[in-house]
Design brief:
3 domains; alpha+beta
Length: about 300
């Protein structure tokens, strides 16, 4: 099908390598045609209304004029490998931005640089570190809840419980917890069949069974915040209340965000500094890419 507009006729001739034909087509339709200095765009000016239109010619080339886009790595090793393959030899235009709280790395391979002027900032490598299932389990079930819920959380996460009390004791505590407040309330439960029994007594304490195993104030879990990080000990503080005859029990982790940040800075940034010696690493967030225009 022949071109339907003067601009299309001009563009088709230019893309075909026939500059003379393009100029001739433009002249016939009262247009002025020129190319940018790097021949990356075709500029068409309509004489009648002085409208100037710039058409990107890159799509007519066999390959892009320059690399752009964002590679999303899944692991720190993948981030490092991609950076080594895509950054230039001395990394002089690349900057790695690290966000410890978001556990995110962004390498801007064509960043602004004081010695080379502004950059397009649209050629990137990004890594959003993924939480491990055990981290999601223990951080996602904090707070007070039913005894049944507490028992299920301990049962599912017992592989991460270390030290004293150990996983066996914590599971027993979770399954048979008795608490009395004001000499009134006691509850026992068993997650094996979901049954629960209630009784009253005249003591004010917290105990298991006949009081042979005291209820601990804390227990310890060993967790990897995300894949590629070393496991770290995190203290879990036991919480329980008895109000209006209802028992609530659970736990809260002590400063888990600090453990996560430490893992990011020590394990991830530490490995980057070794593997990518000489790379510029900044704690922060990169500027947005340069707005669309002539590339």
């Amino acid at each position: 099908m022949p071109p339907t507009t003067p601009t299309e006729a001009t563009l088709e001739a230019f893309a075909g390598g026939d500059v003379a034909a393009a100029l001739d087509a433009a002249e016939k339709h009262a247009q002025i045609v020129d190319t940018t200095d790097d021949s990356s765009a075709l500029v068409i000016a309509h004489r009648n209304d002085r409208t100037i239109k710039e058409i990107d010619l890159e799509r007519y080339e066999d390959q892009p004029v320059r690399p752009r886009g964002t590679v999303k790595a899944l692991t720190a090793d993948g981030f490092i490998t991609t950076y080594q393959r895509r950054a230039d030899a001395d990394h002089h235009l690349a900057t790695i931005y690290a966000h410890p709280d978001a556990c995110r790395l962004v390498a801007v391979l064509n960043d602004d640089h004081w010695n080379d002027g502004a950059g397009w900032r649209d050629h990137r490598i990004q890594l959003d570190l993924q939480e491990t299932p055990e981290w999601a389990h223990w951080t996602g079930h904090q707070g007070l809840g039913t005894q049944q819920r507490f028992a299920e959380v301990i049962d599912e996460g017992q592989d991460e419980i270390v030290g004293t009390p150990n996983a066996t004791i914590m599971l027993e505590i979770a399954q048979k917890f008795e608490a009395s407040v004001g000499g009134k309330f006691r509850q026992e439960g068993n997650i094996a069949d979901g049954s629960a029994a209630f009784a009253y007594e005249e003591t004010v304490d917290a105990k298991v069974g006949e009081g042979l195993i005291p209820v601990p104030k804390t227990f310890t879990v060993v967790l990897r915040p995300f894949y590629g990080a070393e496991a770290r000990k995190v203290e879990a503080r036991v919480r329980y209340t008895c109000r209006s005859g209802e028992l609530k029990i659970g736990y809260v982790l002590h400063k888990p965000d600090e453990a996560k940040r430490e893992a990011f800075v020590t394990d991830v940034l530490g490995s980057l500094e070794i593997a990518l010696e000489g790379a510029t690493i900044i704690e922060g967030v990169p500027a947005e890419p340069t707005p669309a225009g002539r590339r």
